[in-house]
C-alpha cells in the first residue's frame, strides 16, 4: 500500500501538453503555394505598420457631430416603424377583436411613452456644443410620435370607436316638432 501511494502520477496526455505550451513559429515548409495576390512579405509589413500607428482621440467638434448624427437616428426611429404599424393595422381588420384591440393599445402606448420621455431620451446627447441644434431633433422626435398617434386615431376611427357621426350623439338630440301633420282619411 505504501509503495502505491509513493509512486509518481502518470504523465499528462499529449493534448494537455500541447494546450499549455506556446505554439511554434510557422515556417514556410509546406508545398502549398500562396494564393494569387498574396505576399507574405507585404502582409508582414502591413501588420507591423498598423501596430505602430496609434489613433488620436477625437476632438470635441467630432464627438458633437457624431452625437447629433446619433440623435437624428433616434429621432427618426418612430418614423421608421410607421410603415410596419400601418400594415399591421390594415391587416388586423376593423372588427372588435382581442388582437385588434391589443394592436391599437400598443399603437397608442409607445408614442405616448416616447412623448413623456423625450428629455430623458436625449440627455446622453446633450452637451454645450449640441444644445443649439438638439431642440430641432427633439421637435422632430415629437412630430414623429404625433404622426404615430395619428395612425392610432385613424385605426380607432376605422373601428367605429370615435363618435364622428350624427347617430353617435342621439342622446343629446331633441325631438323635432312637426309643423304640419297628415292624417289618413278613409
Main beta-sheet strand count, sense and barrel state: none
Order of helical and strand elements = HHHHHHHH
Could you tell me the strand content as a percent range? Answer: under 5%
List low-pLDDT spans: none
Overall average residue pLDDT: 85
Global shape: elongated
Number of helices: 8
Q: Report how far the terminal alpha carbons are from each other.
A: 132 Å
Structure notes:
With 186 residues, the chain is mostly helical. The protein has 8 helices and no strands. Helix 4 (60-75) runs parallel beside helix 8 (131-158). The longest helix is centred in the C-terminal third of the chain and has 28 residues, at 131-158. The mean pLDDT is 85.
Task: Give the secondary structure arrangement, pairings included.
Blueprint: H1 2-6, H2 14-20, H3 40-52, H4 60-75, H5 77-92, H6 98-116, H7 118-121, H8 131-158
Helix pairs in contact: 4-8, 5-6, 5-8, 6-8
Short description:
The protein is built from eight helices and no strands. It has 186 residues and is mainly α.
What are the salient characteristics of this protein?
58% helix, 8 helices, mainly alpha
Amino acid at each position: 500500500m505504501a509503495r502505491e501511494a509513493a509512486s509518481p502520477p502518470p504523465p499528462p496526455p499529449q493534448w494537455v501538453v500541447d494546450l499549455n505550451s506556446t505554439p511554434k513559429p510557422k515556417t514556410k515548409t509546406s508545398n502549398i503555394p500562396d494564393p494569387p495576390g498574396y505576399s507574405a512579405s507585404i502582409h508582414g509589413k502591413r501588420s507591423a505598420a498598423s501596430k505602430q500607428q496609434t489613433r488620436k482621440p477625437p476632438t470635441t467638434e467630432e464627438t458633437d457631430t457624431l452625437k447629433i448624427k446619433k440623435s437624428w437616428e433616434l429621432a427618426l426611429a418612430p418614423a421608421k416603424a410607421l410603415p410596419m404599424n400601418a400594415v399591421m393595422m390594415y391587416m388586423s381588420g376593423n372588427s372588435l377583436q382581442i388582437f385588434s384591440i391589443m394592436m391599437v393599445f400598443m399603437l397608442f402606448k409607445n408614442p405616448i411613452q416616447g412623448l413623456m420621455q423625450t428629455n430623458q431620451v436625449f440627455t446622453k446627447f446633450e452637451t454645450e456644443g449640441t444644445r443649439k441644434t438638439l431642440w430641432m431633433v427633439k421637435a422632430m422626435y415629437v412630430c414623429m410620435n404625433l404622426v404615430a398617434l395619428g395612425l392610432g386615431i385613424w385605426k380607432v376611427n376605422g373601428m367605429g370607436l370615435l363618435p364622428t357621426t350624427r347617430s353617435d350623439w342621439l342622446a343629446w338630440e331633441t325631438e323635432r316638432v312637426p309643423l304640419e301633420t297628415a292624417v289618413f282619411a278613409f
